[in-house]
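Continuing the series of single-chain predictions for the mutant panel. This is the parent chain; the variants come on the following pages.
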Amino acid sequence: MRVWRTICSYIWWTWDRGTLHYDIMVTLILLFIFVTSTQTFFSARNPLYINYKDKPVARELRPSEVQIIPDGSSGFVYWVEASAVQGGNEAEIRASLAGIVTRVAGSDAQVADYQAVREANGHVRAYKAWVRRGR
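Parent structure:
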């Protein structure tokens, strides 16, 4: 009966801070967090291994979204989905890209150059726009 009462007190967390049982509960929680979350101590063949199946979610851009990628040298490259860009000729495409980029980068951003990113079948998937700041 006494063991059952102790187990219930662990479940309901009735021990005061600084007592031996409180320290045991905190130690068990910390062991669970640090030991079960790493694969260095356990492998998939070990029966104590817990696979949380936590992987980043692949996220597709919505047509109105812009992805900003560091250029590596002087600035950034703005990746804009083709469905967000309007126009058929170069001037219309550049104007549409400028409108999209200025909403993200500010009114002083100008499209210095752009390049169409094509799929294997030749359709334009997106546009990469190199942007410079200032007028």
